[in-house]
Design goal:
8% strand, 5-stranded mixed beta sheet, elongated, Glutaredoxin
Length: 274
């Protein structure tokens, strides 16, 4: 009879366990877990099964978690959500700590400070995927009204990438960042000192002032600080995008970026009651 009672109790707890995990996920993480079978729908946790009883039964019968794939998936989803939340908070703290860098007069920015979502783009002017995605990103910049883009140079492809990054900051100081940025991103020539300065002259930059700005210790220090920010965010290559509280690393296409942007904007509008 004891075995029969244990089996009945186990079946009852197992029946409610998935709903219990669902409830925890909803309350703690705002997630809806759909791993439970249709037969479990409508189950009420108040029917004699309390969280304390479920926990005690799990401690006595841990095989329930390991042997039931639905429960294991629900728990895995909850753990993943908690890790994502922790990562998002960690990124927010890093960005808050580096707010003065991101708001520096040396940082090129497109869009209003009051925009709903900020995108930080880490890029290199010799990065092939960065150059390939430029036209769509430019279209996004021109058509999306609620986004702000921060251009974060991360020159990882050698000395000419560093030279181009310094030149872009110099162009920003002369008020021609977007024009020079477009020239560098769409250039069909290999970047070197001659091509970098030739493109600068072609768009009307004062090349003498540009060269002086490129040698400015403040510019050199600024790019080093941006590299350190990338390191803190675990960005080791380009392109990479920080979108609100999410981060999209190497290999991310414009499609994924747009999808994340839509998620961030939708979440904002829902939370603000718009």
């Amino acid at each position: 009879m004891r075995i029969a009672r244990d089996k009945t109790a186990g079946e009852q707890v197992a029946k409610y366990l998935c709903k219990f995990v669902q409830s925890v996920c909803v309350l703690a993480f705002g997630l809806t877990i759909t791993a439970c079978s249709d037969t479990d729908r409508g189950t009420n946790l108040s029917e004699g099964i309390t969280n304390k009883k479920v926990r005690q039964y799990l401690l006595e019968h841990p095989e329930l978690v390991f042997d039931d794939p639905e429960i294991a998936r629900a728990i895995s989803s909850a753990r993943s959500a908690r890790q994502q939340q922790a990562s998002a908070l960690w990124r927010k703290s890093i960005l808050a700590k580096n707010a003065s860098l991101l708001d520096s007069s040396l940082t090129p920015v497109s869009g209003d400070a009051g925009s709903q979502v900020t995108i930080i783009e880490f890029y290199d002017y010799q990065c092939v995927p960065c150059k390939a995605s430029y036209p769509e990103l430019e279209q996004m910049r021109e058509t999306e009204i609620d986004i702000r883009i921060i251009y974060a140079q991360l020159p990882v492809f050698g000395s000419y990438s560093i030279l181009a990054a310094r030149a872009a900051i110099g162009a920003h100081r002369q008020g021609l960042f977007q024009t020079y940025h477009a020239a560098l991103m769409t250039a069909n020539v290999r970047l070197d000192a001659d091509s970098i300065f030739a493109m600068a002259a072609d768009i009307g930059l004062d090349t003498e002032k540009l060269q002086a700005d490129m040698r400015d210790p403040q510019v050199i220090h600024y790019l080093e600080q941006m590299r350190l920010l990338a390191d803190e965010l675990d960005v080791t290559g380009t392109p990479a995008f920080v979108v609100g509280d999410a981060i999209l690393r190497g290999g991310t296409g414009v499609k994924e970026l747009k999808e994340e942007l839509d998620r961030q904007l939708t979440r904002h509008y829902l939370s603000s009651g718009v």
